[in-house]
User: What shape does this take?
Amino acid sequence: MRRRIAAVVLLLAASGLPAQAQVRGGETYGPRPFGVLIGDVFTLRTVLTADAPFKLDPASLPKTGALTYALDLRRIDVAESAGPNGATRYDITAQYQTFYSALETREETVPPLNLAFVDGEGGRREAKAGGWAYLTSPLRPIATTSGETQYALRPDATPRVPSLREAEIGFASAGAATLAALALLAWSRAWPPFHRRPSRPFAAAARSVARRAGAGEAGWRDSLLALHRAFDVSAGKRLLGDDVAAFLGARPSFKRHEAAIRAFFDASRRAFFGGASPAASGLSADALTKLARDLASAERAA
Amino acid sequence: MRLGALRSLLPPALALAALVALGYAGWRLYEQRQERAYIQALAANRDVQPADDATAAALFARAHYLLARDRIDEAQGLVGRITERGSPAVVARFHYDVGNARTRRAIAAIEATKIDVAVPEVRLAKESYREALRADPELWDARFNLDVVMRLVRDFPEVERGEEETKAQPKKLWTDLPGLPRGLP
Assistant: This one.
């Protein structure tokens, strides 16, 4: 809650300027003007209106820092807004801190701001505003009463030993999240311990093909069989070359590999019913491995 | 099809993100452990130097260690790094401790009746307490101790306040400095 404080505004009209152009207002609003102790921070708000063409000269604002012996200006902000008839309204917020060590309750003052307004053509007006008076109170009695020495100081600020609890909880949560994410990844790819997952037949087949395809003709035939079993499990019945179109129709994610799947069934027919060797069948061990891997990937995206 | 691609890409992306988060959390935990160990070492009276990238809390612990041993100049050397890295509360506590160390020196000098040594120390202590209150006005211990040192050696602000006021208030020259009897009669 702010109380309105009467402020004395001195307007010093510069010579040679139109009589009607002037700087008006200058009310200062502050907090309660009593019970102010050493170290207290308070904010004063001053409102001024400058008629056109006058503008506040920013250079006339005081600099932050020590203002008087026991008073600091911590910050000063000016908010500008348009008033009636082209006038400019200035809302000056100044934050002060007092370091006055009072021995008794007494009145202290904040010196007014010496503001200058310029019209850009050499015209200049000055205004004093923003002064304030308040009552400061002492923090300690003059005579020590408790039998302590007169130099009894408050003790040092001691460093706190920081708690690790927050970082430990963060680390544990991240660890749990990582385990969960890795489990999800293993489940999605049918890695151990999810390698027997029934809905990932091609993942299991791809592993067995990668192991066996290069191991001579027997390995190659085993790989063909492993892939056939995967097709069977995936289709839910024994899948033959003629059923491929219906199989692909039900599984759009396998559609991209249609040519390779048909080549696989052709090669398989030639190998098992025509007795063709790997070379003669037209499906090399590498092509077979790649097909198995592609199918496992398509299965994950299904 | 797009949903399918998402379903196959999501698990590895999640796993990667979780691993990155784990690495970050582990690094933070490690750093905080180092800081804690450093502060505990100082508290155990071991004279350990701070790391170059020490946090403000660690530097404040170092400053506190030095100030408790009257090594004020060494502690003052940390002011830049503490101001740069610390929150206002830590900066305020640092300046407050510097002020206390200066005041302890001043009081020792007063008790040895070396007033010419005490006066500059009191002046520096005042500046430190003010600096502490500028950073954190809520540090009430700094207000109290500032009040103590302000009375220890009274300034003469009347130069700024104008003549007539000085005449009207002669008791402002009153000071706490020697002369007051101490102890029980």
